[in-house]
Design a protein that fits this description.
Largest sheet: none
Number of helices: 11
Radius of gyration: 23 Å
Shape: globular
Structural class: mainly alpha
Helix content: over 70%
Length: about 200
């Protein structure tokens, strides 16, 4: 006796699949929103003599959390506004997280790269407090100055630190030098944009 097998149409998986992943952010939309936010911060905040605006820009990572900023800006290309802001806030977060190490590396690097030290604009001697103040002053430039200048100063700072790291074989010189080069290239792109 053979049993007749009943065939049925499988339930469509599309509905279940999208229900299971509902609420996840579309990476393209996150990227677009991140770039728009960066555009507003950089282009909308300037020129402003309002110290409150500059303070909010400087302390954005403190108030929102570097993780929240990373979620929106970390994957952005280095030459985009979002990518530039991500790199600037990472530098600031590092200067606040380990100011003694930053000061040591900057002190070691300024002996070999005096020009970049001058561009960075750090007080002499460059202790932890002076370096944090310099990083904050650079970020304040987003609101009150020329964004290309902000990028060049941050690049110079990273270049001096990279030179200082060269004396320590355990440190990552390439990453800091790469960051310096990315910020410098973005600064040149910003100058070209301003001229056009």
């Amino acid at each position: 006796m053979t049993q007749e097998r009943r065939h049925h149409r499988p339930a469509p998986v599309e509905g279940r699949f999208f229900e299971e992943h509902e609420g996840g952010a579309d990476p393209a939309l996150v990227s677009e929103a991140g770039e728009r936010a960066a555009e507003i911060l950089v282009r909308g905040a300037r020129p402003s003599a309002d110290d409150a605006v500059a303070d909010r820009l400087v302390h954005l990572a403190d108030s929102e959390g570097i993780e929240a900023i990373a979620e929106v800006w970390a994957g952005a290309p280095a030459d985009s506004l979002a990518g530039c802001l991500w790199r600037l806030y990472v530098l600031r977060s590092w200067a606040y997280a380990d100011p003694a190490a930053v000061a040591r590396q900057f002190e070691a690097g300024r002996r070999t790269d005096a020009f970049a030290e001058v561009v960075a604009g750090v007080a002499d001697p460059p202790g932890p407090d002076e370096l944090r103040a310099m990083v904050d002053a650079v970020l304040r430039g987003i609101a009150s100055g020329d964004f290309a200048d902000v990028l060049f100063r941050a690049s110079a700072f990273a270049r001096v630190v990279a030179a200082g790291r060269a004396a320590d074989p355990a440190s990552d010189v390439r990453r800091m030098l790469g960051l310096a080069e990315q910020l410098e290239a973005a600064g040149h792109a910003e100058l070209a944009r301003a001229r056009s």
